[in-house]
Amino acid sequence: MISSRKVVISLDLVDLVLDSGAKSVAIVGTAKNVGKTVTMNYLSSRLTGRGLVVGLVSSGRDGEITDAFTGEPKPSIVPPEGAWIATAEGALGESAGFLEIADIFDKAGLLGRLVIGRMRESGPVELVGPQNAKELARVVERLRDLGARVVLVDGALDRVAAASPGVTGAVVLSTGASAHSDLTLVAKSTASIVRLWSLKTPDDPEVLSLARRAIDRGYVAFLDKIPRADAALLGGSRLAQYCGGPTRLSARGRASRRVERQAECPVECPVEQQVERPARVPQKPRYSLRQTAFDTVLGREEEVLSQAGEASFVVVPGAVSEAFLTEAEGRDLPDGFSVIAKDPTALFTRSEPGVPVYVAREMRLLAITVNPVSGGGFSYEPREMVGAVSREVCRVTGKKVPVFDVVSGESNAGEVYGVAVG
What local confidence, expressed as pLDDT, does residue 190 receive? Predict the structure, then answer.
């Protein structure tokens, strides 16, 4: 007889990281002292406990004893023994004694060159890394090459390079009581971030391909619908153009054209097929890419959008400001006019966009962690905070996102993943 006893599934944050298969994970805080460092220490310790080598790097500066801006005490980053870390020479201090240096980057920053090494024993370190996404991705890849199974990247909303899909494979968002004294506002601001980070790519593969091409070029561009007659002309096959399409020739005709077609035809196929095989007509293109001379929309919102014409999409390779989205909403643009950003980290707005917004590359949010204790002396009950954030995120996004307090062990995992019959 099968028991009907319900057993709540026990799922840890580490389980989510491992199940995701992500090789690198950004931990991004919504504000100061919201538990980002605690989350990073928790993951590095638990992953190591499961036999995995971790790598640690910061998109800026973290791990100092006191906050450089507020002067408040901060928890230190404490990599486990055997972990790989990347930090600046000038930030090593006493932690240099724990480190076995394996690589030194040539390019120097404010605190010297970037050093990569392995921890001989566990000890507190200060992480100082590059804020540039390209450089940060290079460091993450180097840590992986040296043996880190999972690289954890410390970040913040004002250092969003860490969360970019081009740098890390997944993200954990940290929020807490220090973000605001009103729990309702903490939940609302967290849900607003999750909404932006949940933006999708365009459904149309052609639109997505053109958008990525524009972003790779580094210039703002518009996607215009091609009139149907023009689309038919552009959809002709190169094989038909060079090889005469489905026309069938006599043996003598084939022989006479063999030399001509061999010289002209850019398609690698037998000469007989060049003449006789019917051309495969590809799908007719429906959009054309119209590149502008702008590499940014910042400060040029009106000037850029004045060139929209009858475009269906505008593709922005850099930052997308709230001013740009507001300007697009207020203009008389074609119905359905949409904005395509590089990825969610390029969007700098907290309000609901008034125009449809897509991204060329999606982010993968694994979970949210909360710190119910504020540096200002007040706190919330862990269950209350987990519940408030979980409900508001679900209300705004329609998604049930796992929420954890890694200190108390409180989470909504049972609600998100249901129950098991045991």
Answer: 96
Hunting for tokens 């840890």 — which residue is that?
12
- Going by C-alpha positions, the residue among 71, 84, 89 that lies closest to residue 32 is 71
State pTM to two decimals.
0.81
Nearest-angstrom CA–CA distance, 346 and 342: 6
pLDDT of 66: 52
Token pair belonging to 292: 């502008």
Length of the chain: 422
Question: Looking at beta carbons, which pairs linking 66-72 to residues 24 or more positions away fall under 8 Å?
Answer: 67/32, 67/33, 69/32, 70/32, 70/33, 70/375, 72/32, 72/33, 72/375
**At a CB cut-off of 8 Å and minimum separation 6, what does 338 contact?**
202, 312, 313, 314, 355, 356, 357, 358
- So what's the pLDDT on residue 74? 63
- List Cβ<8 Å contacts ≥24 apart for 298-304: 298/324, 301/327, 302/327, 304/220
For the chain, residues with pLDDT lower than 50 are 1-8, 63, 69, 236-281, 419-422
Residue 388, by phi and psi: left (phi above 0), alpha (psi -120 to 50) or beta? alpha
